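Bumping with the actual sequence this time:
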Amino acid sequence: MKELIFVAYSCEPNSGGEHLLGWKVAENAANYVNGKLHVITREANRKDIENSINLNCHYHFIENDKFMFFKKKGSFSYLYYIFWQIKAYMYIKKNFSASIPVHHITFGNLHLPHFLWLLNHQYSIGPLGGGAYVETKYLIDCSLKERLKSYLHQILNLSTKFNFILYISLKRANKIIVRTEDTFKLIPHKFHHKTLVLLETGVDEDNRANRILRDSEEISTFVNISRFIESKNISVAIETFNYLNYTMDNIYTYKLVGGGPLFSQLKAKYESDFVIFLGKVKRDEVLGILKNSDVMLTCTVKEGGSHAIFEALTYGCLLSCYDISGMRQFPSSLSAIKFSPTDNIENNIKGFAKLIKKELVNKEQYITSAYEELDDKTWPIISQTILDYIDE
């Protein structure tokens, strides 16, 4: 591929989530585009990007100043996102030849509009998310707000069948990439032939230096790293741990890292000698905690590619999770203890705890398999996969 344009609303080094995706894929993909990869991103990202070394891309920083009053600093604004995408469309139309292909990479959400399909350029899109929603039947004491959000998300998913703009943007796309099967199911069947399912979260090539293979008999510490929000299902994770620990004569501890609106409430309810709430900690401390932990226990019910899960596996933490959402894509059942939840929460707690207890003795086999899978999830490989697909 001689030249390519990436549209990356989110593109920030030293960050996470969509921001890290935009940065890592762009910087690695540039190696395969003869140094002619143009990245259209926000002016707000300029400082972090220009302070980084070894820039491989040609960055173009734009902002829609007329509509910045819709954008509160540090928060995402759906309305401002739309106006920024209009500006990106106009910028490309004015400054680039129609012979250069365009790929929309972030924000990758099926329900967020963009206008690149109006260009005369060859155009591709993804990885897209948006198909997964919170199944509230798996949550303890689910709030009315979370139930309403879940119902609205389901309605939004159903509306994709009648969304003319979405249909046209998918029809115009040469290639479509989606994160999970949940989103793939929302793509009209006639477009399945040009759609790839790819969980795009990656790890750095030097991750092998962090790998630890501990003896299964030395397990003592469980860990969970996440925001304290309802979709993370932290109450059920703690209940599962407590049931497991009780059956093992309380030989384990469970460290919970992160903050969020439910932190104080859950800490008041569950903190004990065995369940330890660490709150928000710096990244270096997080990595230190992972190095000294044996099992990551999470019951999250809505996840794309969790960077916390990837980092835990890198440091030799055995992942035990629900077989749901993004965890269906990665890791495989050979690399993690995966439990399929039912409508009965009590049965989920006891069943998952019993499964973990049974499989802990196989920790070394799980981690060995996870390391093999991580070898195919480095950022250069993810970037090459995306480029190869859109270049077919």
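The tokens above came from a reply further down the thread. The two ends are 10 Å apart (CA to CA).
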